[in-house]
Amino acid sequence: MANIIKLRVNGAVHPVNADPQNSLLSVLRDQLDLTGTKYGCGEAQCGACTVLIDGHPRRSCITPVGAAVGRQITTIEGLEQNGKLNPVQEAFLEEQAMQCGYCTSGMIMAAVAFLKTNPNPTDEEIAHGMEGNICRCGTYPRIVAAVQRAAQKGAQS
Amino acid sequence: MMDERSIFSGGKTAAADELEPERYEFRARAVHHFDLQRRDFFKLLGAGVLVACAIKPVAARQEAGGRPSGGVGFSEPPLPQEISAWLHVGENGGVTVYTGKVEIGQNIRTSLAQAVAEELRYPIAKVELVMGDTQLTPYDMGTFGSRTTPTMNLQLRKVAAAARHQIVALAAMKWNVDSQKLKAVSGRVELTGTKRSITYTELLAGQQLTAVIPADDPLIPPAQWTVEGKSIAKVDGRDFVTGKHRYPSDQNLPGMLHGKILRPPSFGATLASVNAASFDLADNVTFVHDGDFAGVAAATPEAATRALNALQAKWNEQPQISNNGLFDYLKSNPIEATGFEGASKYEIGMVDKDLAAADHQLRQTYTVSYIQHAPLEPRAAVAQWSGNMLTVWTGTQRPFAVRTELAQAMHVPEEQVRVQMPDMGSGYGGKHTGECAVEAARLARAANAPVKVVWTREEEFTWAYFRPAGAIDVAGGIQKDGTLTAWEFTNYNSGAAGIRTYYEAPSQRILFQPTRYPLRQGSYRALAATANHFARESFMDELAHAAKMDPLEFRLKNLKDERLRAVFQAAAEKFGWKRQAPAPGHGFGIGGGFEKGGNVATCVEVAVDRESGFVKIMRVVTAFECGAIVNPDNLKNQIIGGNIMGLGGALFEKIEFANGRVLNAKFSKYRVPRFSDVPPIEVVLLDRRDIAPAGAGETPLVGLAPAIGNAIFQATGKRLRSLPMIPNGLNRA
Lengths: 157, 733
Description:
Low-confidence stretches of chain A: none
Radius of gyration of chain A: 15 Å
Strand content of chain A: 15-25%
CATH superfamily of the largest domain in chain A: Beta-grasp domain
Strand order of the largest sheet of chain B: 11-12-9-19-16-17-18
Mean pLDDT of chain B: 90
Oligomer: heterodimer
CATH superfamily of the largest domain in chain B: Aldehyde oxidase/xanthine dehydrogenase, molybdopterin binding domain
Shape of chain B: globular
Number of helices of chain A: 5
Helix content of chain A: 25-40%
Helix content of chain B: 25-40%
Distance between the termini of chain B: 68 Å
CATH class of the largest domain in chain A: Alpha Beta
Number of helices of chain B: 18
Number of domains of chain A: 2
Distance between the termini of chain A: 48 Å
CATH architecture of the largest domain in chain A: Roll
Largest sheet of chain B: 7 strands, mixed
Largest sheet of chain A: 5 strands, mixed
Low-confidence stretches of chain B: 1-21, 26-35, 56-81
């Protein structure tokens, strides 16, 4: 049954009262009130719940919270540093790469992780790398452009 | 100054906000709700000028240029509507706009702010919109039918213009000059020919002014726009890239419980019995059994799920029809009724005679499957009771209708129900109803605590509603030279939107035949316009081939409407329709049409691998014209997004069902477009500053499916007449 787990989220340690089998998504949203990470499908098919665990993109809806103990969890709320947006966040704004925006958190987290593995991608590589994220509004071309723009920023910095 | 009671206590000014005559748009009761009194308003917002929009009846048809707007032979009853929006310019410089429209990704929070900034001559950054809150905003039937831009944009322009006139009049009084000599510029009033100027805030200090807009208030013509017509970025975009924005499913309240609902095993099943004896006591579960409704609430979603799984229920099920045989079922089960529930028909000339006399006569049947909106945010609601007062935060395109649903379900007066709609994770016509809100409210009353209900993806795929399936029979006759002489078109069940043909044919018989149907069905982005354009534009292609004419030339030969001709020509020009021929194994296709005030034409190139049957969409060009463009960048976003959503329904989206069960209620089984499905999409915008702007959230997608089908035909000689066209690849279609 429930017990106290210590989670390191966005650089801070949070004690949470949860069964280790509970989904990380539920703990983030319902216990820590970090609602930027979204529920979309519950079966790792849409990517709306993507967070970084030790820098790797993970579907928090199928990740047991117990598996995240002792690791660095980064959510969308943790990307902005001292009021400065992450280059991927900036690029999404500059390209207006959203409509309803519900997929945006997961897209940005997936893109941040993707660019770490491939800092100079082609558009095709971006599409392939982001294939697991659904945007039902169909802003895919703008998202590709935003990830490409973020890659250019990374190359310049 | 006008009598303020005419504004605030329900003046009798009525306006006919004519709907797209489409019966699957859920309709609302025409009741006006207007709760705040003038004094409350100034108390809430401080001094300033308050303007309400009390429009007189306007002929919506004028906006459509008097052309057929889709329906056949019927129109909606006029809806009494006293006030549609209001606006407050505060002495502190803030501008607050109140509208019952809601933001669901179509970006009207930005485009409506542009309208206000334009006419008020005020910085857009200081314009804030309060949207879809039944306690604060005037009654609105709902956000659907691409009506926001033609109606609310216009109304807010009028409201803002009236506020500006009031402010200019204050300056004229203060300086004792003729207001003709004054000019409003970016929040200041200037005396022309001098350096004298004063800010709105200085003028409004301590004032409590009200006005109702005059219906004939002159507006800034689109040719002179400086804020509208510009690609203004999403006003609160930063909140979306930082995760700060709170969607309906993100609302959390202190002490809030999580609810889960017991779902029947199949559609129409009734609850015979339910046993809640095996709950885990530690979970402190609230259990409600009320008729066919059974649900639980507990402190965490996990505890609620445990409790749901512990329920032992017996259901009475009924045998139901399945995918197999669906279209025969629809065609053989017409609803024989008169009036709005029954068939509607448009007929001119002598169809049978002209069909028989034609040089070429063709007859075909097209079908469309049930598909789902699948908004990425499923239905969600948080309900909170405070005594007899109920507040619900929920994702819906119709907050006022949800308020009615809640009041009826919970047996409380509407005055005791407040519905708030935080900008939501889209809807596409799929969130007109309030099931989830009612479920949360019922559980919250039993639990005596706030309750959140968020539907699972499987629930959303099963218990929401679907875009109607349909079968469409088309017959046409042409002369040897390609002149269309007879046109017969019958749509079974899928709907009347976009059913009228814009091609010239002296004899026409067009019928929408409602039928009995197996799944809960309702509104959908572009609704039946997608099916009707697919059938019409595919059939026109078939006729063109029968006449041995180029499909574009054949269309233009039978099309007089200048706006529609212009988009066909613009799309073909950009695409290179005439300049090049498709490579071997490739095909070009074209499709287009007119709906909801917008004109669209789409050209597609496909490549088909003859061995595997794999179809690749190589490129898409869409030309679109909806009058004066309010925000070009957002319009492009809508057009490209509409095409991509349309791609799913065209190629592979389909609800599989059998015996009252949805068989593919998951993203792993129901395929929606993903990154790799998206071809290069080019957009050509035609900006008609001489025509009032129409909406653009729906119409851009209707040309795509027929263009793809026509291109596949050119590449392979294979004619695909059912949507989705290639759910399993071409060879198994």
